[in-house]
Amino acid sequence: MLKKFFGLTFLISLLILGWATLNSRALPKPIESNPLPIEERESEITPVESETHVIVIDPGHGPWVNLDEEPIAPGSEVTKRKYGIGATGIVTGTLEREINLNVSLMLRDLLENDGYIVIMTRTDHETISSNIDRANLANDNNADLMLRIHSDSFKDSGVHGASMLVPGKVGYAIDIVDISRIYGELILNTLTDEVGMKNRGVITRNDQTGFNWSKVPIMTVELGFLSNPDEDRLLSSSEYQTKLAQALYKGIVKCFNEETHSTE
């Protein structure tokens, strides 16, 4: 009788243990977690307050002369060639296109490191678009500023210094003449002050295809004269090109500070 009792007790124990095991597999213990309420999680997101500006940099000139012509302004019957090869250093033989591109690429890096969106019209010497196409690149991207970077040349080798070309009231540029001059003056003054070169002033040009097709603030900086022996040597050096890029960067930054726009 006692054996039957212990046998029955053992059998009941096995049944209880088996049921507990099956139950624990069917209903596993949930992993403990303490997620933040939705309201608190949303409050952790910091909105971006700064405005991102789009800058188009146009390193002047290309690998060859393009004799094809295009209208100098919308609706104009006057035409000009699409682009040329540029000037050559009187002493060093350095091509203008090389200086323009070197400075432009360094300027691009400085701006991008500061959060600007930069669009280049070219990044090598293999291809180059027409003046209209480059202006439309800035128009289509609603650029805040388009800076065309060039080096100058003149028959008098004694002429030196930097200048800034800005559009006149021709074609699409009618609406951006004033702001282009404001930005142009800021960039030029910063450039000449930082680098220590002669300031030749801001010059209005009505005959620039790239200007006349532009719907966004645009200007052309002339970094110095390759026809001047001293400036040719400077412009051809990487150290001086770095100084130029840094100065142009500082000038562009000034264009978008609060004080500049509060005076417009």
Order of helices and strands: HHEEEHEHEEHEHEHHH
CATH topology of the largest domain: Aminopeptidase
What is the strand content? 15-25%
* Mean model confidence by pLDDT: 84
The end-to-end span amounts to 109 Å
Tell me roughly what share of residues is in helical segments: 40-55%
Largest sheet: 6 strands, mixed
Briefly, what CATH class of the largest domain? Alpha Beta
Q: How many strands?
A: 8
Structural class from helices and strands? alpha/beta
* Count of discrete structural domains: 2
What keywords describe this structure?
42% helix; 264 residues; six-stranded mixed beta sheet; 2 domains; single chain; 8 strands; alpha/beta; 19% strand; Aminopeptidase
